[in-house]
Amino acid sequence: MDHPSPGLNRRQLMAAGASVAAAWPLPTRADEIRRYHSDYFSFVGADAQGAVYLAHDNNRGQTGDRFFADHWIMMYAQGEGVVPIVGSAHYPNPGKILETIPDSAHFQFRGTIDGGLRMVSAVNDIDMAVEGLTPILRRQTPGDDYWIGAAPATLRWKGRQLVGRVIFEFIARTGYNRFTSDFGANWSNFNGLYLLTEDGRDLYLRYHERVQAGTPRESGMATFDGEGTLSDIAFAIDESRPTPDRTYRWPTRWQAGFSHRGTRWTLHAKTDALEEVADWKSGGFAMSVVSGEVVRADGAGRRRFKGWAELLI
Predict the structure, then answer these.
(1) Among residues 132, 202, 265, 311, which one has the fewest Cβ atoms lying within 10 Å of its Cβ?
(2) Domain check: are 26 and 141 in the same one?
């Protein structure tokens, strides 16, 4: 296998496979400035023809006087399956841009995260407008900032207008650059659920088994019945499917209890479609389209949902 390009983000590094690890990282000096920024948009929307799902990850990094950028993108359309996208790759960052998303040859960005952003790709016939985003779930430590927010969004694609929502994930780190750092398993049995409820609200749940300072095993947020973070999360994988000639399994059904704004809920989610992105023998990376419902513990209400599951196993 060829060595990975210096534009690989965490999802692309996983996709490159473990065999490249020995060739990583790029040469660096201990005294070099290192910074890394990531903006991840998870869109779910629908029109009369059905639902469309778009995962769009945008990453920038600096090591010394070298600047990097890339997109990682997956799209899925109900009735069609995975949609090929041009431009899911490393691209030059001559403007040395970190704070905002630099334009590439295939995607251009206008506006701001907090004021509203528009993302356009002529070659992919994509035009997505996202309203202003602010943090709902946030963790800040010296040198690191991580937050999750959500907002209404409209995706225009191939003559269709899909109305939905975006769950947005932001990462900024100093003293670290994913493009030039050692490859390592940052996640262990990571399950990230990015969900749109039937009444047009959001639910985000994240679970992983790698214990690290400042990162809880479970976390989440919701915007139904008001915005807020989730507490007392009890996350379980109910079913999984084997991977041929591998010891790991893909989660396919989940259950989770959580509290949100004083109410106890239970989530039931199942896989509708699973796309295997990478396999490095001891684990893998996949994106799943999922659906299910959340039910109040007192039986007084329920909401159906659909969305993405990101799996790093």
Answers:
(1) 132
(2) yes
pLDDT score at 214 = 65
Could you state, in chain order, the average pLDDT of each consecutive group of 10 residues for the chain (313 residues)? 34 41 50 95 98 98 98 98 97 98 99 98 99 98 95 99 99 94 68 98 94 80 98 98 93 99 99 94 94 98 98 94
Q: Which two tokens stand for residue 214?
A: 């400042």
- Alpha-carbon distance 73 to 55, whole Å? 6
Question: Which H or E run includes 15?
Answer: helix 10-16
pLDDT of 181 reads 83
d(CA 313, CA 185): 10
Question: 11: helix, coil or strand?
Answer: helix
Distance of alpha carbon 247 from alpha carbon 255, whole angstroms: 23
Contacts of 245 (CB under 8 A, 6+ apart): none
Q: What angle do CA 290, 292, 293 make, to 5 degrees?
A: 145
Residue 187 CA to residue 211 CA, distance in Å, equals: 9
Distance set, CA 102 to CA 58, 74, 87, 160, 309 (Å): 9, 19, 13, 27, 27
Domain hosting residue 226, numbered range: 185-313
**What is the pLDDT, as a whole number, of residue 9?**
42
pTM: 0.90
Looking at the structure, tell me whether residues 132 and 279 fall in a common domain. no
Distances (CA, A) of 234 to 157, 226, 231, 238: 38, 21, 9, 12
Same domain, 8 and 53: yes
For residue 59, give the nearest of 170, 214, 215 by alpha carbon: 170
Structurally, the chain folds into a number of domains equal to: 2
Q: Choose the final residue of a domain: 132, 161, 184.
A: 184
